[in-house]
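Incident review: delayed structure delivery

Summary: a single-chain prediction request sat in the queue longer than the usual turnaround. Root cause was a stuck worker, restarted by the on-call engineer. No data loss occurred. The affected request and its eventual output are reproduced below so the record is complete for anyone auditing the incident later.

Affected input:
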Amino acid sequence: MGRPTSTKHDPIPYALAGAGVFFASICFGFVPYFSRGLTDQGLAPYAVAFYRYILTAILLLPTLFKHRSNRRELVWGMAAGAVMGLGWVGYVTALETVPASTVGVLYMTYPVFTIIIAWAIFADPPTRRSLVAAGLIVLAAGIAGSPASVPIDQIPTLLVSLAAPFGFGFGICVLVHRLSRIAPLARIASVSLGSVVGLTPLIISSEIGEVLPAGGSDWFLIVGIGLMTALVPQLIYTVCSPVIGASRTAVIGSIELPTMFAVGVFAFGETITGAQAVACALVLSAIALAQSRATRTVTTVISSQRHR
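Output delivered after worker restart:
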C-alpha cells in the first residue's frame, strides 16, 4: 500500500507528521545526559524512570477525568505505560556502567519488537520494506553489542536493557491501534500515569537516599528529563505517529541513536569504536530505506473510525 492521500479527516499533513516523529526522537536521544547525571548522584534507576513520567502525569491528570467515558482506551494506555516504565528501568541501569552509544544501539531493536507485537496482537502485518529496515537495525545491534565489542561481564546488563525496547515497541502499537480515537493529551496522560503506577511500588519500598534528590542541580536534571525527554516530545510523537503508522514510526524514530552517540561523545567523553560507527550507519540506512517509500500505515483505518 502506498502513502495515503491527505483527507479532511487527517489531523496533520503526512510529511509534517514524519518530521514531528523525527524531532521528537531527537529529544528522546538526550535521555542519557539526564539519566546518568541523576544516577551518578545516587538515585536508583527506577527513581529516574519515575521522575521522567511523574511531571507529565501530574500536569495532564485532569484530561483523564475529561475523557473518563473512554475507559477501554485509558486502560490500554495505562497498561502500555506500566510496561514501558518498568522496561525503561533496564535501560537506565545499563547506562550506569555501559557506554551510551552501546546501550543506544541495543535500544534500537524496538522496531523489531514493534513489528512482531503489531503482527501478533493487532493483526497488522509488516511490509517487506519495513522488515528489511528492521533487519538492518538488528544487524547493527548485533555488531555493537556482540561479545567482541563489549566486555563479557556487561552482556547480562545489556540483555536486561532489552526490556526497554520491548516496552517501547508495545507502547507504539497500543498508541497506533488502541489510542488513536482519544485526544492526544489523554493518550499521554494515560501512558504516563500507567508508568507512575507501575513504578510506585519500587519507590515506596526504597530508602530515602535512593529516590530523593540531594541538591538543586539534581532537581534541574529532573525537570529537564521530565520536560525535554518526556512531556514535549511525547505530545508531538503522540499526535504524529498514528498518521504514519507503527512500523514507519519505529524506523524513523531510530534517529534517536545518532543523538545518543553525540551525547556520549560530547557530554561523557566516550570514544566511538569502529563497530559502533558501522552500527550507526546501518541504522541511518534503515531510516533512508523507510523514507524512500512509505510503508503500510493505519491512517485510512483511523480516519474511517474516528468520526463514527
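Verification: The first helix runs from residue 14 to 28.
Action items: add queue-age alerting; document worker restart procedure.
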